[in-house]
Amino acid sequence: MQELPHIRALPSIQVIGLEQIVDMTSIMAQVKKRIEYISDTANLDDLGGWRLLISLVFNHGNVIGIGNDSRRDSFHDPVEALFDDYTDLQTCLTTNVLRGLDAAFERGVTVAGKRFKLTRTVKE
To answer: How much is the pTM?
Structure first.
């Protein structure tokens, strides 16, 4: 039986028709690649049997919310989304999703009472 990864991300698209405008498969491939990097550079050995599921919520907003539990309004230290730096929505969404993941693990994520942080910064 194949072991599940320590970190997984699932998208939640709350913008009607977004999947017809952007390639979500491509965005999620970049997310998976970044999560693999995070898994290699964060101190995840102490997770034990726990797994971390990250919800990527695509909605109409101007910040990247980093939540600390399952309540949607529990964001702390939101990261300002950068919209003006991009000429296309695909690159904008991909880059901002990756920025949110990086910010979460640079600040640290707590699972089962243990804090997990990147041990080195993310390089593009």
So the answer is: 0.81
Give the contacts of 106 (CB within 8 A, at least 6 positions apart). Answer: 117, 118, 121, 122
Whose tokens are 């991909």? That residue is 94
Q: 76: closest CA among 67, 84, 85?
A: 67
pLDDT of residue 7: 84
Q: Locate tokens 């880059």: which residue?
A: 95
Of 83, 100, 81, 84, the C-alpha closest to 30 is 100
Tell me which residue of 92, 74, 72, 68 sits closest to 82, measured CA to CA.
92
In whole angstroms, give the CA distance from residue 59 to residue 49: 32
Backbone φ and ψ of 101, nearest 5°: -60, -45
- What is the 8-class DSSP label of residue 48? T
Among the listed residues 14, 23, 16, the one whose alpha carbon sits nearest the alpha carbon of residue 91: 23
In 3-state terms, the chain is what percent helix, strand and coil (to 5)? 35, 25, 40
CA–CA separation, 55 and 28 (whole Å)? 12
Please report which confidence band the pLDDT of residue 37 belongs to, taking 50, 70 and 90 as the band edges: confident
